[in-house]
Design brief:
The structure holds two protein chains of two kinds.
Chain A lengths: L1 E8 L13 H17 L8 H26 L4 E10 L4 E8 L1 H24 L6 H20 L3 H19 L6 H32 L4 H7 L5 H18 L7 H5 L5 H10 L4 H8 L1 H5 L2 H24 L3 H22 L1 H31 L17 H15 L5 H16 L1 H26 L16 H22 L2 H9 L12 H23 L12 H7 L4 H49 L4 H24 L1
Chain B lengths: L16 H19 L2 H28 L4 E3 L4 E3 L1 H21 L22 H8 L6 H18 L3 H19 L6 H33 L4 H10 L4 H19 L7 H8 L2 H26 L4 H23 L5 H22 L11 H23 L2 E3 L2 E2 L9 H4 L1 H15 L5 H15 L3 H27 L7 E2 L4 H19 L2 H8 L7
Antiparallel strand pairs in B: 1-2, 3-4, 3-5
Classes of the chains: A mainly alpha, B mainly alpha.
């Protein structure tokens, strides 16, 4: 690797100086934090989490400074190469950063929500003996995620992509003594590998045909690629996005991932990492812009996932799994917007940001509920908690109102825009998005009713209590954002992202449009159904038996695991057994045969080493004759 | 006038100063032996050694930077890129190996050399010599003479100089081999075998010189080369000469079927001497062989390439396969040395001279391989001197079991050396193997590269066997490693670090070699 003079490439307004020269600090701080905590052993067991928090706050401050610089300074982008990583005669890859309005927004979300969740975890993980390690992994995640969104090259992005996969694996399986957690971590890792394949294929294709995998070069040269290959790259990118963002058909791992500690679910499996797929699609907008097949595929996958997620959300009794199903479904909305094209990009990111806040808010709220009930996650054991957990309830309610889209909370603006864009795109897609909003309202109402209202169905010995300040303050912060972020960003987001995405700014409606009114109506129907079924009618403590195939399918994650098992795992295992048999019998046989043969030869050969100098001399003489003979033979031929 | 005019010989003092420094150091050592009381000799000899090596190295670097290339000493010596590389390597590795001679803690205060070589083993005289603490401090001086021989051998421009260098290099080694403190009979037997077989091989070499002279009428490498291109008659004489020259040279590098002395001599000689031999002789001999075959016999490459290819295969095979059943660590390293001779020969066979800018040709690959081998060898033999059972070294592999638990640093350094020998990636040995095999490949001997890779797989087994025994077996009882002094630490650490650094960052060395890989004619 060769250190480069930091050299600016691409279009830029900021030649040097100012906060951009400190952009590397965003990545360096959490990286150093993770390294210190992991390498110093037990030295920081007691106080280590403060290092971790300091690191992520430093990162946040840097991101904020750069964001403000953008606000004051206006458009443009900043791309800098630090290091020459790989150079071959055909292509070379530099390690560098690319900062524009899109990536800095992500950096802010990651470090902002990240900071909140780091601080929340101090209380949440207070009694865990491996807390230092937990915070080290969190820092590692923040570093990898920032590398993912700030990289200026697909290959470097891939390093961050793998990094978040690794930290996700480590954190899902953080309670490694639980077999379920270990299995869930493994499942997430394996399923993500399939998505990773898509990204590696993307990089290979770009390097092979364009000679570069940097965003700048790809944007400039994508037109020279043949249409088939553009479509292939688009589908590869979609595969990658499906893996990381738990979209159909690679969605099954996200539900199991809830085995991880709740702050992890909030940060990684709700607010940030799972949205990486959306980032990837939006970042690659120049590729999708020229491939209709790929964008159509994105829209189909997104629409299917909206329903799968919502369906699962309706059927689960585990509070975190309901939220996980909801996450899938909401990411489906974002991907849908990204797939619609330039009209949707800004709304995809808008919904991604608002979702990041209200979903993190609700996950942390769920964590607070679990904290109060002895780590129970079954909503059938909750009920009537509103009085005992007032702060948790109030903040959760903000998140709830935001996600179902009650004006003027965050979700209303962001989701409404997507549904409108979907109707403009295609009537079927629009109707599906509309229906999805109704189901969302239904299952979220179900969650609220079963948890905070109704009869107290507590397990014996459970005495609910409000969580400590370090947790509730974070809830309040996130709740405030859930309320306000929509209004703040609604009129601004399109204009902000326009320079980065090359989109046009459309007129934004503040008041409900006809479609908006219909949406509101559908939502109210959903809420009413939820209230009727789970408030007016009593909730059984035991999960009721049912023959309704829809419910059974929902409870079983729509048989995603069964499908994986029969379609992928079993054939793979069979192939593995065949390969193993081949390995043992033929390959090992051959290798062992060679080894045994070599040893036998060795036994025979060492007898020639008699130790007698006369035989050595003879051997030398014979050797001389031998090479003389070869020489003569060589001359004849 | 009828009177024979004799012109005074010219001698380029400045250019040849590194060589002269080594010779002066050796002579000074002899003077010290004659004039200085016993008590001060050892210290003084070590001081002379260190000063000599550093002075010579300093002069060498100055000369190299000033690019003082050319044919010197009235045509006897040629200083070109490869010669500078060899001299530098000989000074570095030779210096490090000789430094191990000075280790005294390994023998409980005495050196590893015999107290009085002239006494009969097991006799009263021997016990007397031991009890009054006699020792042979001539070893430094002998080693420096041998070192000078190695330097001249690789830089000879004619066959007579080369023959003399061969003897200057070898004679002190015969003596040194006989000087082991423990297992003296074995050591003396080894020395005598080495001497007898070495003389035998020298005779072949000398006969070869005669025949080639008969063909070409010249002793200089350039002269032989030009007569090969010009003359079409008497090729039988030339071919016979080539065969006999090859026997002499292949004997020195320990190639099969001329390897039989290697295991016995490597095992019998005092371990530091074995280390010195293993790298010093091999480096000089391979470079000398390459010089003779590339420069003088380059026009006949179609005749000798197939021969050397067969020799290379045999050498790799015998070295790798026979090492498998060795239980003595020095014997194992001896066979490993044989197999390495085979690996490096593949690049000689390939003999590809012309490569794109920035890449290394056959000679560069050979140099890199030998440098990698040098680092690992210096470290390995340094460590072998340290592992003890009672008074003597323990060479039984079984006794090394579990060394990684007791001596993690030493075992770690040994592991690095072994991995480099085996050619595992991230070590210099890997880059070396890659260089020689790809060189053979691009020289048109693809099949030889493939065979080479196969044998390096087999060879890897034996190194891994030692590793597994060191790190994953229960510790053997009663075995310990002495705490070494700097005299051993420096070679061990330099060897291990060199093996790693040039595996991780081969670029600069490759770059250096790519500018020093053309023989001057």
């Amino acid at each position: 690797m060769i250190l480069l003079e930091p050299e600016l490439t691409g279009q830029t307004l900021y030649i040097s100086g100012g906060v951009f020269d400190f952009a590397w600090l965003m990545l360096a701080a959490p990286a150093v934090g993770a390294a210190v905590l992991l390498l110093t052993g037990s030295f920081f067991d007691k106080r280590g989490h403060w290092i971790s928090i300091l690191a992520v706050l430093a990162s946040f401050a840097t991101a904020l400074a750069i964001f403000v610089q953008f606000l004051i300074g206006g458009g443009g982008s900043y791309s800098v190469d630090y290091l020459n990583w790989i150079t071959t005669p055909a292509w070379s890859v530099n390690i560098g950063l690319y900062i524009d309005q899109l990536s800095i927004l992500f950096a802010l979300l990651i470090t902002g929500v990240g900071s909140v969740i780091h601080i929340y975890s101090v209380g949440y993980m207070a009694h865990d003996v491996r807390r230092r390690r937990f915070f080290a992994f969190l820092n590692l995640f923040v570093f990898a995620m920032l590398l993912l969104v700030l990289a200026n090259d697909y290959l470097v992005l891939f390093v961050g992509w793998e990094g978040v996969g690794l930290s996700s694996y480590l954190l899902i399986g953080f309670w490694q003594h639980k077999p379920a957690a270990a299995a869930a971590a493994k499942k997430a890792f394996v399923m993500n590998r399939i998505g990773d394949l898509g990204l590696t294929m993307t990089v290979f294709t770009l390097l092979a045909f364009l000679g570069s995998s940097s965003f700048a070069d790809v944007d400039a040269k994508i037109g020279t690629l043949s249409p088939q290959w553009i479509t292939a790259v688009g589908l590869f990118l979609l595969l990658a996005a499906c893996g990381k963002s738990a979209q159909f058909p690679l969605q099954a791992w996200l539900l199991d991932a809830m085995e991880g500690p709740t702050p992890v679910s909030a940060l990684i499996h709700a607010a940030t990492m799972v949205t990486a797929g959306v980032y990837l699609v939006v970042r690659s907008h120049t590729i999708f812009a020229v491939s209709e097949i790929a964008t159509t595929a994105v829209v189909i996958v997104a629409t299917v996932t909206i329903f799968i997620g919502a369906w699962i959300g309706c059927a689960k009794d585990d509070i975190k799994k309901v939220l996980a199903g909801s996450t899938m479904s909401q990411i489906g909305y974002m991907l849908l917007a990204a797939g619609i094209g330039p009209a949707g990009y800004a709304f995809a990111i808008f919904h991604l940001i608002t979702h990041g806040f209200f979903k993190a808010n609700m996950f942390l709220g769920a964590g607070s509920v679990m904290h109060a009930t002895g780590d129970d996650v079954d909503m059938r054991h909750f009920g009537g908690l509103a009085r005992f957990l007032p702060v948790t309830f109030a903040t959760f309610a903000m998140g709830y109102l935001a996600i179902i889209g009650i004006p003027p909370l965050a979700g209303y603006f962001s989701k409404d825009h997507i549904i409108e864009a979907a109707f403009e795109h295609n009537l079927v897609v629009g109707s599906a998005a509309l229906l999805g909003a109704g189901i969302t309202a239904f299952y979220m109402t179900r969650l609220m009713m079963m948890t905070f209202f109704g009869a107290r169905r507590w397990e014996p010995g459970v005495h609910p209590h409000e969580s400590p300040k370090s947790m509730t303050i974070q809830l309040i912060i996130l709740a405030l954002f859930s309320v306000a972020i929509g209004v703040v960003m609604n009129g601004w987001i399109q204009g902000w992202l326009a320079p980065a995405l090359g989109t046009e700014v459309h007129e934004i409606q503040w008041l409900p449009t006809p479609i908006g009114l219909i949406t509101l109506l559908v939502v109210i129907v959903g809420v009413a159904a939820g209230v009727y079924l789970f408030r007016v009618r009593p909730v059984p403590v035991a999960q009721p038996q049912t023959k309704n195939p829809l419910v059974i399918a929902g409870r079983n994650d729509l048989f995603g695991d069964l499908a994986n098992e029969t379609l992928v795992v079993k054939p793979t295992m069979f192939a593995a057994q065949v390969a193993n048999a081949n390995d043992t019998v033929f390959i090992d046989g051959a290798i062992d045969g060679v080894a045994v043969g070599a040893l036998k030869l060795s036994e025979i050969g060492r007898k020639l080493q008699s130790g007698r100098v006369r035989s050595y001399a003879l051997a030398t003489f014979v050797g001389a004759v031998f090479i003389g003979v070869i020489t003569i033979i060589g001359q004849l031929g | 006038m009828g009177i024979l005019e004799i012109t005074a010989p010219t001698f380029e003092w400045l250019e040849l100063s590194p060589l002269l420094t080594v010779l002066i150091g050796a002579v000074l050592g002899v003077v010290v032996e004659g004039l200085v009381p016993r008590a001060y000799r050892n210290l003084l000899q070590v001081a002379i050694l260190v000063v000599t090596i550093f002075t010579a190295a300093g002069l060498l670097i100055v000369n190299w930077i000033s690019a003082r290339l050319g044919i010197f000493a009235m045509g006897a010596l040629v200083l070109d890129g490869p010669a500078y590389v060899t001299w530098a390597a000989e000074l570095l590795f030779g210096g490090l190996a000789i430094l191990i001679f000075a280790e005294r803690r390994a023998g409980q205060g005495a050196s590893v050399f015999v107290a009085a070589a002239a006494t009969v083993p097991g006799s009263k005289d021997e016990r007397l010599a031991n009890s009054i603490g006699r020792e042979h401090t001539e070893v430094y001086s002998l080693a420096l003479f041998s070192l000078s021989g190695m330097m001249v051998f690789a830089a000879s421009n004619d066959l007579i100089t080369m023959f003399i260098a061969l003897e200057v290099m070898s004679l002190p080694l015969y003596l040194l081999s006989a000087l082991a403190r423990y297992r003296r009979l074995l050591s003396q037997e080894a020395a005598l075998k080495y001497f007898l077989l070495g003389s035998f091989a020298s005779a072949f070499f000398l006969f070869g010189i005669g025949l080639v002279y008969g063909f070409s009428g010249s002793l200089t490498l350039e002269g032989i080369s030009s007569s090969i291109t010009l003359s079409g008659t008497g090729r039988g004489l030339l071919l016979a000469g080539i065969v006999l020259l090859a026997v002499g040279l292949l004997f020195k590098i320990g190639a099969v079927p001329f390897q039989s002395w290697v295991p016995d001599v490597y095992t019998g000689a005092p371990t530091p001497v074995t280390g010195f031999m293993a790298i010093g002789v091999k480096f000089a001999a391979v470079m000398g062989l390459a010089r003779v075959f590339f420069v003088a016999l380059g026009g006949e490459r179609w005749s000798w390439q197939p021969v050397l290819a067969v020799i290379a295969v045999l050498t790799m095979a015998v070295g790798a396969v026979l090492a498998l059943t060795q239980t003595n660590i020095k014997r194992l390293l001896a066979y490993s040395a044989v197999s390495h001779a085979g690996f490096v020969l593949t690049a000689v066979v390939g003999a590809n001279a012309f490569v794109p800018d920035g890449q290394i040709n056959a000679l560069g690959a050979i140099s890199f391989y030998l440098i990698a081998y040098g680092f690992a060898t210096v470290a390995a033999f340094g460590i072998v001197t340290l592992v003890r059972k009672g008074a003597g070294e323990t060479l039984e592999l079984g006794d090394w079991a579990g060394l990684g638990v007791r001596e993690p640093v030493l075992a770690g350094a040994f592991a690095v050396a072994l991995l480099s020998f085996a050619g595992i990636p991230l070590t210099a040995g890997f880059i070396g193997k890659w260089a020689v095999f790809s060189s053979a490949w691009s020289g048109g001997y693809a099949w030889l590269s493939i065979v080479g890779v196969g044998f390096s797989l087999i060879a890897a087994y034996l190194y891994l066997k030692v590793l597994v025994s060191m790190f994953f077996a229960d510790p053997a009882s009663s075995v310990s490693a002495v705490k070494p002094s700097l005299a051993t630490w420096i070679p061990v650490i330099v060897g291990a670090i060199g093996s790693l650094v040039f595996g991780l960052f081969p670029g600069p060395l490759m770059d250096l070699l790519s500018h020093a890989e053309v023989f001057l004619r």
